[in-house]
Every structure is written in C-alpha cells, then in structure tokens.
C-alpha cells in the first residue's frame, strides 16, 4: 500500500475556532485542494483549535467532547500549542486522537487531513463489501489482531550532550534501545525489534533525513511511526522533517506526548493495513474465493449496497468506469485472459472493485471519487494498456483500450448504472475470444 494515499476528491474540512482563525486557514488549505466549510454543513474532517488564545484551558475537555459528538464517525484533528504539550489532558488526548502543533507547516496539516480521510474511506469501503458478502451468504472475514501501543522503542541519535537525558527520559516511559548508526537502525527494524523510531535531531540533519526517506520507500517498513525529537522545533524545522516523511516533531521535554503519539499512529496504521488486507481479500468469485477480479454477481451486490448508501445520504459520490480492449492486429490472443487482467487490477487501488463480464470488457467502481479524478484514473488505465506489450518476446500482442465513465450517485439500480456505462463505451472492432 502506498502511504499516504490521497483521496480522489476535494476534501471538505470544518473548523471549530474563532472567525479570525477560520479566515486565516481558508486560503491556505484551499491552495492544497481542501475546502473549508462551516461545522453545520457536510464535511469530511473536523479541525479543532485548542490553543490558549482561542479557548480557555478549562474548556478543553468540554470542547473535545463536543467535537467528538459533532464529528460522529468522521475524523477529528486537534491543533495545540507547544506550551500545552505537557498537560496531562492533552497527553491522554494524543493517545486516541491526532494532535498537531499549531506552528506546523501547511504540509503537516494537509498530510494529516488527507491521511485521516483516506483511512475512513478505506474502512467504509471494507464495511460496504462485508454487507454485500453477508447479503450473498458468503460469510464474514476478519482483519487480524489489532496492535497495541509502543512497547519497544528505538532511539537513533549521534553522541551529544542531549543524548543521555533524552535516552533516560524515553527509557522511563517505554523500553528503549539506542543506536548511533543508520545501518544499525535498519537492522533492528528489519528484525521487528522495535515498534517505533525516535530520532534525536543532530547538528547535521542530512543523514537522519536520508534514513527517513529510505524507510518511507521501504516495502515493509514504510508504515513505522517516526518521531523526531527536535530541540529547535520551529516552523522551518517542522516543515523540513515533514517533507522527509516524519510523523511528528517533538521537543525533548515532551517525550510523554511523543510516546502517546507514536502509539496512536501505530494503532491507526495497523487498522488501516488490516482494512487494506480485507479489501484485497474481499474481491470475491461466486465461490467466495479471493481473486483479482470479482465475479459480476458480487460486483453488482457491492454496487447495489453503494447505491443504497447514497440514497440514505451515507455515501459519497462514486463513479463506474468501463474498459474495452481490442487486439491491435485484429487477432485473438489468449494472453488477454491473464496478463491484461493482472495489470488492470494492479493499476487500481484496493478500494476499487474490478469485474470482467465479457472477455474484452472490464467494469470498475471508483468509490469516493470526483468526476475529474475518476476520469483521470480511467485515462491512465487506458494509456497503460495501450502502451504495454503482452505475451512472449517473439509473439508480442498489443491492445487498443477504450473507456467510458458514469457518475452513479443518483442512479436507481446497479443494472441501470452498468447499462449507462456501456452505452457510453465504443463498440468493439473485433470480438475477442479467449482460448
């Protein structure tokens, strides 16, 4: 799973704060494709400002409770000042909710917003498929064991005056192992001997930032929580570490908060990976077996559940795309049955469901997608199939790909959505017969 995975639509965020903060954030977030709306409207994520200048400290617990009631199942992000990070209430809040320093850059805030919305979209898609499975009598699958907090921490730090105090304070809060080289860090993490990585920022930050970038590209370690302990945690340094891929930047005196944040990140990403695994396993055949391509029956059941949710006002607009492939040479090729299907499924996200009702036809659902983003996805899929060569080197086959797209939020039935997508699709130039 590529992480973070940006939503395929403009995200709407509501702000519980003073009008001055609302106006200041409006232009900043709009530049990054995030719309600011009022809390009484429809929104994807709720932002709450807990800074002392915006709300009295005595009102923090009541404001947190009100925000949770208002958001319901939607994510809540809290903005707090560094002077509040030593408060016991805020440390408890950080163990279950996303707390962002108020001096954080736009990159930190927008990444947290998109990540939280993507996690909710992934969970809602998994729940929808489970309802479809139950309706067809296919049984219910589980996402595996949920991880706990941070029991084993790894501190990567170069020898310095601050090393011993930080290592001692961190060891009091969780079992901590100390390494001073990047190669040692990779070895410990690859052997699953740490739940989170803490980095004490050195004077030369380039080796540490290179390690973070390497971990974010690692196929197995890209989701590990990375907390940077930065003595100079101003906006410039926070923006730098965020651009490298760090999850949070904390001052040395805020280690209790750092451990709570790392634990919440670990639990959240474990749940996200569990939903992602469930989505990969819930593309089912008629025999209730996981497959790259879902059966048309299961595809229609999921589409019916999606339309039902949209009718109740519970779902976001979604799109249904159709892809037709034609052999470029007009001949029939057996490779179309296997290779094309593999590449189509790999090019899409785990939340997208693909079926093949005919040898030359693919149907795709793109949930929580705007028309522009859905069209971009289908065009990229068409270009990929057209550019690739299938089969052996001596007998390579190429295919022409044609696509159509329909927004299905107001449709009455699954069959009407599929019919609308097929009406927009050009007819095949030559029927494709699979060997």
Top CATH class of the largest domain: Alpha Beta
Overall spatial form: globular
Please state roughly what percent of the residues sit in beta strands, choosing from under 5%, 5-15%, 15-25%, 25-35%, 35-45% or over 45%: 15-25%
Helix content: 40-55%
What keyword list fits this structure?
single chain; 435 residues; alpha/beta; Rossmann fold; Alpha-Beta Plaits; 2 domains; five-stranded parallel β-sheet; 43% helix; globular
Report on the architecture of this protein.
Helix 3 (88-94) runs parallel beside helix 9 (255-281) and helix 4 (106-135) packs across helix 10. This protein has 2 domains: 11-119 and 147-277, Response regulator (Rossmann fold), CATH 3.40.50.2300; 296-423, Reverse transcriptase/Diguanylate cyclase domain (Alpha-Beta Plaits, 2-Layer Sandwich). The chain has helices at 19-30, 60-71, 88-94, 106-135, 163-173, 182-190, 206-217, 235-244, 255-281, 296-312, 335-347, 371-387, 414-423, and strands at 11-16, 34-37, 45-49, 76-80, 98-101, 152-156, 175-179, 196-200, 226-229, 248-250, 319-327, 353-358, 361-366, 390-391, 396-397, 399-407. The longest helix is centred in the N-terminal third of the chain and has 30 residues, at 106-135. It starts with 10 loop residues before the first strand and ends in a 12-residue tail after the last helix. It has a 5-stranded parallel sheet with strand order 2-1-3-4-5, sandwiched between helices. The mean pLDDT is 82. It contains 13 helices and 16 strands. It has 435 residues and is α/β, with parallel strands linked by helices.
């Amino acid at each position: 799973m590529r992480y973070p995975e940006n939503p395929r639509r403009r995200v709407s965020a509501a702000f519980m704060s003073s009008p001055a903060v609302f106006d200041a954030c409006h232009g900043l977030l709009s530049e990054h494709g995030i719309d600011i709306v009022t809390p009484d409207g429809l929104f994807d994520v709720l932002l709450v400002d807990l800074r002392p200048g915006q709300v009295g400290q005595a009102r923090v617990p009541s404001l947190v409770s009100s925000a949770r009631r208002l958001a319901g199942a939607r994510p809540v992000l809290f903005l707090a000042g560094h002077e509040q990070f030593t408060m016991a209430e805020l440390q408890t809040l950080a163990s279950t909710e996303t707390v962002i320093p108020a001096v954080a850059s736009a990159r930190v805030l927008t990444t947290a917003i998109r990540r939280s919305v993507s996690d909710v979209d992934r969970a809602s898609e998994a729940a929808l498929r489970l309802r479809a499975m139950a309706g067809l009598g296919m049984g219910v699958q589980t996402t595996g064991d949920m991880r706990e907090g941070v029991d084993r921490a790894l501190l990567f730090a170069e020898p310095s005056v601050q090393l011993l105090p930080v290592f001692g304070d961190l060891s009091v809060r969780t079992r901590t192992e100390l390494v001073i080289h990047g190669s040692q860090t990779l070895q410990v993490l690859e052997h699953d001997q740490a739940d989170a990585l803490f980095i004490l920022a050195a004077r030369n930050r380039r080796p540490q930032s290179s390690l973070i970038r390497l971990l974010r590209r690692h196929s197995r370690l890209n989701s590990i929580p990375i907390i940077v302990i930065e003595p100079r945690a101003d906006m410039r340094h926070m923006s730098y570490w965020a651009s490298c891929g760090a999850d949070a930047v904390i001052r040395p005196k805020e280690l209790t908060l750092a451990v709570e944040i790392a634990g919440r990140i670990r639990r959240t990403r474990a749940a996200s990976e569990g939903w992602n695994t469930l989505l990969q396993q819930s593309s089912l055949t008629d025999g209730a077996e996981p497959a790259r391509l879902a059966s048309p029956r299961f595809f229609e059941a999921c589409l019916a559940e999606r339309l039902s949710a949209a009718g109740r006002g519970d779902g976001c607009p979604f799109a249904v795309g159709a892809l037709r492939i034609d052999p470029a040479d007009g001949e029939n090729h057996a490779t179309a049955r296997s290779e094309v299907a593999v590449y189509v499924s790999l090019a899409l996200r785990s939340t997208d469901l693909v079926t093949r009702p005919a040898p030359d036809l693919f149907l795709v659902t793109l949930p929580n997608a705007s028309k522009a983003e859905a069209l971009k996805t289908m065009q990229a899929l068409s270009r990929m199939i057209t550019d690739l060569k299938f089969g052996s080197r001596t007998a390579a086959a190429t295919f022409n790909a044609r696509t159509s797209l329909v927004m299905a939020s107001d449709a009455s039935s699954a069959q009407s959505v599929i019919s609308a997508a097929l009406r927009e699709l050009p007819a095949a130039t030559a029927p494709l017969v699979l060997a």
